[in-house]
Design brief:
5-stranded mixed β-sheet, two-stranded antiparallel sheet, 2 domains, Muramoyl-pentapeptide Carboxypeptidase, domain 2, alpha+beta, 10 helices
Length: 292
């Protein structure tokens, strides 16, 4: 298939193989069978045929890899009721007291926020790292105290270590909320009944939320998807790999939630973090419990 026809065909095939309709495969077929297409069998060159074979082989490798991840996650025991209760054993009042002791004074305006950043009392969370990804935030800012950032780093490192022990790739955590101002907390409260009334621990920079229903693909991949026959194929195969890995993570999110929850339970027992397993929102809400 010529390169200029590949992109729409790749998108259609990716969607079809992700379960959004086998009919979309017709796009790829049309590229190969339409007599007016430069990719028709009668006019396909040897390099184009080699690219087709490399493409199909790459897809099979990615799909086999995704199947292997699914098989590894399948036997993971889900959280028991007692484990869920342990992850809800830090009431908001206790977390708020710790946040006031370890956090910053809630910034009243943008000037106050700037002063806290300049003094190093609040530090940014990078949008994308090898350990986590920060979602597009609507009601918060990707800022936390240095202790909270250290907590996130430790949590993600332990989580990925547990995954490696199981033969799984280093999936990244997804941060869904961080610092909130009083105004943004009030805005959130109007649309989310799960949001705390009064002061929130999020206002002190000590608290962030991590999704347990979605996880991001690793920053570095384990598959070699180079295609010497058609080097331009590699980025599309890489996108397919990312899509399938994250699809498996979503399908096995309860198993991954349990793995992450047990890491959090251990860290909570060590006095490092205070956790709330939320129900209205699929997140672990956590407040740093000590200085790092």
């Amino acid at each position: 298939m010529p390169q200029e026809l590949f992109v729409p065909a790749m998108e259609a095939l990716r969607r079809a193989r992700l379960g959004l309709g086998a009919a979309l495969l017709a796009v790829l077929g049309a590229c190969r069978s339409d007599p007016s297409s430069p990719a028709a069998p009668s006019s396909r060159t040897a390099p184009e045929a080699a690219a087709d074979r490399a493409f199909e082989a790459g897809l099979r490798r990615v799909e086999a890899y995704a199947d292997s991840l699914d098989a590894l996650l399948h036997p993971v025991p889900l959280l028991r009721a007692s484990e869920e209760a342990a992850l809800r054993s830090s009431p908001n009042e206790e977390q708020l007291a710790v946040a006031r002791r370890l956090g910053v004074a809630p910034p009243g305006d943008s000037a106050g926020l700037a002063r806290l950043r300049q003094a190093g009392h609040l530090v940014p969370l990078d949008t994308s790292t090898a350990l986590w990804v920060v979602r597009d935030l609507e009601h918060s800012i990707a800022l936390v105290t240095p202790d909270a950032k250290a907590l996130l780093t430790e949590l993600a490192t332990r989580f990925q270590g547990r995954l490696r022990e199981m033969g799984l790739p280093a999936l990244r955590l997804e941060v869904t909320s961080a610092l909130r101002t009083a105004e943004s907390q009030a805005d959130l409260r109007r649309t989310n009944r799960n949001a705390t009334g009064g002061r929130s621990t999020h206002e002190y920079g000590t608290t962030f939320d991590v999704a347990y229903s979605s996880f991001r693909a690793p920053e570095t991949r384990q598959l070699d998807l180079t295609t010497p026959e058609a080097p331009w194929l590699a980025p599309y195969l890489r996108r397919y790999e990312t899509a399938l890995v994250e699809t498996v993570a979503a399908r096995r999110s309860r198993e991954l939630q349990a793995i992450l929850g047990r890491v959090l339970w251990q860290m909570q027992a060590e006095g490092t973090v205070m956790v709330t397993l939320e129900e209205q929102q699929p997140v672990y809400h956590m407040t740093v419990a000590r200085r790092f």
